[in-house]
Specification:
The protein is α/β, with parallel strands linked by helices and 295 residues long. The chain has ten helices and eleven strands. The chain is 39% helix and 17% strand.
Length: 295
């Protein structure tokens, strides 16, 4: 509240640019922080010149492969975390999983779905029924749904329960679940666009093919922040192929899983993030002093 205090905004968006309606407030701040290098570039191209890279840290002591698993089922376990919004792209993971494994009884898809409205659970169940009707199968592979909130203290054990973490998102601002999974040495299937470009690569994960497409008008009508924006459209066919591959060859991906954790330790450990934060505060103070002298 003091005239000498710094006005710093830490924010993000999941597409190729900053929303038009945000620009005035952001440009009036002493500094804008964005948690991904991709996001910094997108904001600067949108005219936010005072934007700097400031990611969150990942607690690699809490998130590691040695902790207990909360889901102990003797099956190969895929995991997906998200909500029912079009950006998270739930229908794609359902379609890919059901198509890839059909009558396979040795796999399990764990869905942590954030239910925000009372009728959302019924909506989710109906979407599963619609996807199933499109398939011809005697049996369907098992799906385990978690619609309730998981306590923060249990999230590491929950994430560590899977064998492969899958993201079908059309864009991420940071991607906490993916980073948690990588810290636990899980194979992650995800595109390498938006914030995922900062950490998803062929050495530490299984990058998913995608195309860059305009955000559909149906989405823009609901949220004008997406006006004129583009996001990623992941490939369903490639996702099916990658899920089959990791299921059949997971034992050959040990080096990639180790590299995933190394990526998180090297880029997102607390000491590294705090050092970056302290440096940015110094820059913000220098910018403020410079603006005061100019005035």
């Amino acid at each position: 509240n003091s005239s000498n205090s710094l006005n710093i905004i830490h924010t993000m968006f999941e597409t190729d640019q900053c929303p038009q309606g945000w620009k005035l407030e952001l440009n009036q701040a002493d500094m804008v922080m964005n948690p991904s290098e991709f996001g910094v570039g997108a904001f600067k191209r949108s005219g936010i010149s005072n934007c700097y890279y400031m990611p969150f840290y990942i607690d690699t002591n809490k998130f590691n492969s040695d902790i207990n698993k909360s889901i102990k089922v003797d099956k190969f376990k895929f995991m997906w975390i998200g909500d029912l919004t079009p950006r998270k792209n739930l229908d794609m993971i359902l379609g890919a999983y059901l198509n890839a494994f059909r009558s396979n009884e040795d796999v399990l898809l764990i869905l942590k779905v954030y239910i925000k409205r009372e009728n959302s659970l019924n909506e989710f169940i109906n979407r599963i029924k619609i996807v199933r009707k499109q398939l011809v199968a005697i049996k369907y592979p098992e799906i385990l749904l978690y619609p309730s909130i998981i306590d923060d203290s249990n999230i590491p054990n929950f994430i560590n329960s899977c064998d492969c973490f899958v993201s079908t998102s059309k864009g991420e601002g940071f991607g906490f679940p993916l980073l948690y999974a990588m810290a636990c040495e899980k194979i992650v299937i995800s595109h390498s666009w938006s914030s995922c470009k900062d950490y998803i690569n062929p050495e530490n994960s299984l990058p998913l093919e995608y195309e860059i497409m305009p955000v559909p008008y149906e989405i823009v009508k609901i949220d004008e922040n997406f006006y004129g924006h583009k996001w990623a459209e992941p490939s369903l066919e490639h996702l099916i192929s990658l899920m089959n591959y990791v299921y059949k060859h997971n034992d050959k991906l040990i080096d990639r899983r180790k590299k995933a954790r190394e990526t998180i330790v090297d880029k997102y450990s607390k000491s590294i993030i705090m050092n970056n934060f302290n440096n940015l505060i110094k820059i913000a103070k220098e910018r403020r002093r410079g603006a005061t002298l100019s005035y």
